[in-house]
Specification:
A two-stranded antiparallel ribbon has the order 1-2. By secondary structure, the chain is mainly α. The termini are far apart. A hairpin with a 4-residue loop joins β1 and β2. The chain is globular, with a radius of gyration of 13 Å.
Length: about 90
């Protein structure tokens, strides 16, 4: 469980499994979460990353997604951490 600020969260481990290529059902089983909650975390993450990659400013991402600045910052941090590992893994194959 990652501690990235105000509260402990399970989103980080869920997103780490997502970047490893696991599907919703397997992530839900491993993290003891409902599949619809896992999908929500992944969908929020994808919306944030898509806006970020499209060049939107941080404040715009918060506005476009309707998510708090704290949550958007967490997702961008996870994206930097997990996406880079995915790139490193692909380079070694």
């Amino acid at each position: 469980v990652f501690d990235l600020g105000r509260t402990r969260t399970h989103k980080g481990p869920i997103l780490m499994l997502y970047y490893q290529g696991l599907l919703t059902q397997e992530i839900a089983r491993r993290t003891h979460h409902e599949p619809h909650r896992v999908d929500k975390y992944i969908n929020d993450h994808q919306r944030i990353v898509t806006a970020h990659e499209a060049g939107h400013a941080f404040d715009e991402i918060c506005l476009l997604t309707g998510l708090s600045s704290h949550l958007v910052r967490q997702h961008l941090d996870w994206y930097q951490r997990f996406a880079n590992k995915e790139i490193e893994l692909a380079a070694t194959e």
